[in-house]
Design goal:
Blueprint (H helix, E strand, L loop, with lengths): L5 H17 L2 H4 L2 E8 L2 E7 L2 H8 L8 H8 L3 E3 L9 H9 L4 E6 L3 H4 L1 E7 L7 H27 L8 H20 L3 H12 L11 E3 L10 E3 L28
Antiparallel strand pairs: 1-2, 1-5, 3-4, 4-5, 6-7
C-alpha cells in the first residue's frame, strides 16, 4: 500500500482525530501519530501534535519499539509507563524525555500488507483504558477496510494516468455510508441524509442522482451504484447526529 497520496493522508488524519475526540482525548492530553515501517526503517506519515511527532520519530533511532512490535505481531501494544518500561528501555527513556509517559500502538490489518500503525500518546502514565484500546482497534480495522478499497481502485485504474481525488473520494464515501448503516444502526436513507447534512449539501437529491462506489470485493467485479455524498465524520449515536466539529489543524510531512 502506498501512502503518498495526500487524500489518503488527509483521510487518516480526520478519522484518527475523530477517535481522539470521541474518547475525550483533548482533555486527557492524548495525541496521535501514524507510523510506517518500510525496509526495516520507521517513518512518521502524519501526526496530530509536535509532541506526538517527536515521540514517533524517535523510534527511528532504535532497532525495536512498540510500533515495530505492533506491525510485526499484528496485535496492539500498550506501554503503561515509559519510565518503568523494560521491553524497549532505549526508546522508552527517549519518549519519556519528550514528555510521553504512556502510549498505545495499533496496527492496520493485515499488518503484513500495510506495515503501518496508529499510535496514541499521553503525557501521564496509565492513561489508556480498555475502552480506549477497543475503540482504537475498531478504528484501525475500519481504516484498513477503507484502504483495501482504495488499493483495489488503484489496481483497477493502473492503466490510466492516475487515480483522481474524485475517484478516491467515492471509495471513502462508500465506506462512510456502509459504516453508518452497519455499525451505527442508521437506515440507508437516514445515513445519506446525515452525510449530506454534515457535508453542507442539500438533504435530498433529485431522483436518479448516483455515484459509483467500488464494492468490497476482489476488485474484479462491477462497480456498485449508490447515492452517496462526500466522506463525513461518523456520529456517536443513532438518534441525533452530533454538531459538526471544526476541523483541527494537523501536522503532515512536507
Amino acid at each position: 500500500m502506498h501512502f503518498n497520496d495526500p487524500d489518503i493522508g488527509a483521510f487518516l488524519g480526520e478519522v484518527v482525530t475523530g477517535l481522539v475526540h470521541d474518547i475525550g482525548g483533548p482533555g486527557r492530553g492524548i495525541s496521535w501519530a501514524i507510523t510506517l515501517l518500510r525496509s526495516g526503517e520507521t517513518s512518521t506519515l502524519i501526526a496530530g501534535s509536535a509532541l506526538s511527532r517527536a515521540a514517533d520519530e524517535a523510534q527511528r533511532s532504535f532497532d525495536d519499539g512498540p510500533a515495530r512490535e505492533a506491525v510485526r505481531s499484528g496485535e496492539f501494544v500498550v506501554m503503561g509507563d515509559t519510565s518503568l518500561e523494560r521491553r524497549w528501555p532505549g526508546y522508552a527513556s527517549t519518549a519519556a524525555a519528550e514528555g510521553v509517559r504512556s502510549l498505545v500502538s495499533v496496527p492496520l490489518v493485515p499488518a503484513e500488507s500495510f506495515r503501518a500503525a496508529v499510535n496514541l500518546y499521553a503525557p501521564w502514565p496509565h492513561v489508556f483504558t480498555s475502552a480506549d484500546i477497543t475503540a482504537a482497534v475498531r478504528l484501525a480495522r475500519q481504516v484498513s477496510r477503507a484502504l483495501i478499497l482504495v488499493q483495489q481502485m488503484m489496481l483497477r485504474y493502473a492503466g490510466s494516468a492516475e487515480l483522481s481525488s474524485a475517484q478516491l473520494s467515492r471509495v471513502l464515501a462508500g465506506l462512510a455510508l456502509r459504516t453508518l448503516v452497519r455499525d451505527y444502526g442508521f437506515s440507508e436513507e437516514g445515513a445519506l441524509d446525515y452525510l449530506r447534512s454534515v457535508a453542507g449539501g442539500p438533504v435530498r437529491e433529485p431522483a436518479g442522482s448516483t455515484v459509483h462506489v467500488l464494492g468490497a470485493d476482489s476488485g474484479q467485479g462491477p462497480e456498485v451504484p449508490q447515492t452517496s455524498p462526500p466522506l463525513a465524520p461518523v456520529p456517536r449515536a443513532v438518534d441525533a447526529p452530533p454538531v459538526r466539529r471544526r476541523r483541527r489543524r494537523v501536522e503532515s510531512p512536507a
